[in-house]
Amino acid sequence: MSQLPSLDDRLRLPYSLGTGIPKGGEAEIEGYVESLRVQGFCVIERVIPEGDVDAVRESVHEGRERLQTDRQEERDKRIELERQRNPDVEIGAGSVRPPPAPHAELSDIARNETFAEYLVEPRVLRVARTMLDPHVRVQQTEVNKSSRAATEALSEAQLRRRGWHSDWPHDLTAYGPNPEEPWKHCGAIAQPFPDVCMALSTVWYLGPEDVTPYNGGTWVVPGSHKDARNPRGPDDGIDERAPIPGEFQVSAPAGSVFMQDTRIWHSGATNQSQHERTAVVCRYAPWWLSGNEFGNLHSGGHTLRMYVPQEVYARFSPELQLLYRHLAEGVEDVLQPENQHKARRARFVDQPELREPDRFGDNSHIVIGPMDGDQ
Ligand SMILES: O=C(O)CCC(=O)C(=O)O
Ligand SMILES: [Fe+2]
Predict the structure, then answer these.
(1) How confident is the model at residue 302 (pLDDT cuts 50, 70, 90)?
(2) Whether the predicted pLDDT of 127 surpasses 90
(3) Counting ligands in written order, which one lies closest to the CA of residue 263?
(4) What is the Cα Rg of the chain in Å?
(5) Of 297 and 367, more confident
(6) Which of 186, 286, 305, 360 has the smallest C-beta neighbourhood within 10 Å, fewest atoms?
(7) What is the DSSP string of 218-244?
């Protein structure tokens, strides 16, 4: 194929469907990071090995059921408590106010331990740490993100329908708080968004089929994470329901993870196949991003405050514990050793000779310039 010298070199990068990024070692991680920076997303293939996908999917289906039952039990207890406190309280059939601190609601992850351990797969974790901070955690865990199988043939209009959005903390709807239920929010960064990757949304495709445009491959607009507008920006002139030029659908083998800068414009897709496209969505975020776990609406939850029970947390591997420590019962999420080491270096604890009280350096070589690195 002839080369087109006038093309922006970045356009030659693969659309990160796993192909084109070398496999193994640093080069693979660099490929994903570059893709996230330039396109706004990447696909890490077969994070869950082919032979494990069916078991993980089944465990997630069971986990969802258990969450429903266990959340209902917690909810009944809350109502009981509320009635004891205030016998005249009116509790409607709808939502019950979530428990005030220090109480919380069960995190999705607490009933999905088989799936949970894949969250620390080395490639995923290294990419998250490189993009965000060495101390990352999972801020939202949603185990009910399937694309349901079509029950009948879909019309052209249905196939053209999109639901463009960015994810928390860049979802401008903030998940819909209202005056009656003011606690129902997850917050949103105000426009204009700072040009910073603040979190990574991950969609875990759990099969049974490989994901294609036919069966619910996520829609995405490459490069849109750098656009100041947003499909849900009330003044941005975009119809979040209509196709957008440059849009594109992800394809990936079952067990792969679609990772995206939360600013990227993306949309769920209709599934024209006979099978549910099972998926889990988790958001990796740095320790400094104000935390909540309000991503559990889709699996029957309705609160900001989540917890992982002690006995479940104790079964997590040490690496996984670090991702959920901020939600673990009775545990404090102190800064991780690598961050503490960096803070010590910044105080020159390791090089006291450079900070002797009567010894001053020479800053005359310092020229203020732009930041390098395209965030
Ligand atoms: O299901 C998908 O493909 C995308 C899901 C999504 O965008 C979301 O959960 O925010
Ligand atoms: Fe999304």
Answers:
(1) low
(2) yes
(3) 2
(4) 23
(5) 367
(6) 360
(7) PEE-TTGGG-S--TT-TTS---TTS--
Neighbours of 226 (CB within 10 A): 16
Mutate to test the pocket of ligand 1, among 142, 143, 144, 145 (most ligand atoms within 8 A of CB): 145
- Give me the residue label for tokens 């993100």: 145
Give 170 Cα–ligand 1 centroid separation in angstroms: 14
CA distance 265 to 50: 29
CATH T-level topology, domain 10-348: Jelly Rolls (2.60.120)
Residue 1 banded pLDDT, cuts 50, 70, 90:
very low
The Cα–Cα gap between 52 and 112 comes to: 15
Task: Report the separation in Å between the CA atom of 267 and the middle of ligand 2, taken as the mean of its atom positions.
Answer: 6
Domain boundaries, the chain: 10-348
What's the per-residue H, E or C state across 240-254?
Answer: CCCCCCCCEECCECC
Instruction: For ligand 1, say whether the CB of 268 is within 6 Å of any of its atoms.
Output: yes
Whole-Å CA distances, 260 to 17, 165, 225, 271? 12, 12, 9, 21
Ligand 1 contact, 231 CB (< 6 A): no
pLDDT band at 2 (very low <50, low <70, confident <90, very high): very low
Residue 109: name the closest of 327, 369, 260, 357 by CA.
327
pLDDT value, residue 55: 98
Of residues 317 and 13, the one with the higher pLDDT is 317
Residue nearest (by alpha carbon) to ligand 1 atom 5: 268
Beta bridge partners of 260: 41, 201
| Mean pLDDT across the chain | 88
CB of 232 closer than 6 angstroms to any ligand 1 atom: no
Residue 62's pLDDT band (boundaries 50, 70, 90)?
Answer: very high
Q: What is the pTM of this model?
A: 0.90
